[in-house]
């Protein structure tokens, strides 16, 4: 048995109240456990988890078991260093003991915490510094979470936060703070590399350690419905690293920062529901795609007028969609042509732009000409 792995899955057992004397309680099997999943067992209270003997455990999932209790003899015992993935969702009284026993999880690469109502703060700096392999963390709907603890000391991460209560706690502690304000006085910059940061509301960018980030590559904001302008100072802090920016529910967004042109690495900008946006700023030369969905009709019309200031701001961008209008390097095109050219290289786009008109066959003939072998130079006899 010692050479084999065991995956344990106990799911959808509404009448189950205890797992004592189960396979989880058999010492001869503990060292073989690889994946333990206990989910949707709403009445289970007791689960024997002798972590120090589960030295092959790679994944632990405790989900929708709100009555779970940690046995007394299991308290203050560390999770096995072999653990690579940790998922917890509404896990009763096990939430805090589990998070309190994360020291030295050098193989932990992914952690997900959802609906953990007992969670007030993430682990300390010392704990996050010990998580050498952590690359992704997802935290959603933890209603009492008021601090991200030592998250800022973790290595490079992809982070997803769906806990607006964090921003509310910050606002309560600092009356007068708002999501649209620029907190220009950032005492220190966090050198932590964030591959992907996904947040539900922009005000989370005012919460440490997110506030001090300066090496974020991708930012997704799920709900900007109460935001009139983007957090300019935060964007400037990340001007050399931010590549992708996506904003959903931007119905209150009235303008984009003039400093957008300083985001020297920005390649894609997507705005959804930006009906109040009346004008555009200048964009950086790095921008490859601009998408503005459900925008103001007047802005869309101005963007279609060759020579209009709004058109001038988008004419250098390879691919643009504003409302129902499509552009390739400033030249308006049909949706069909846009899709055809969507993944073509820059030279192919330039060739199409230099054609006299956009028609169903024109784009295909241009691409055919560009892709066929051609002789370079002149042949002389």
UniProtKB/TrEMBL annotation:
Q: Which domain of life is it from?
A: Eukaryota
In terms of Gene3D superfamilies, this protein maps to: Ribonuclease Inhibitor
Instruction: Tell me the protein's name.
Output: Disease resistance protein RGA4
- The organism is Panicum miliaceum (Proso millet)
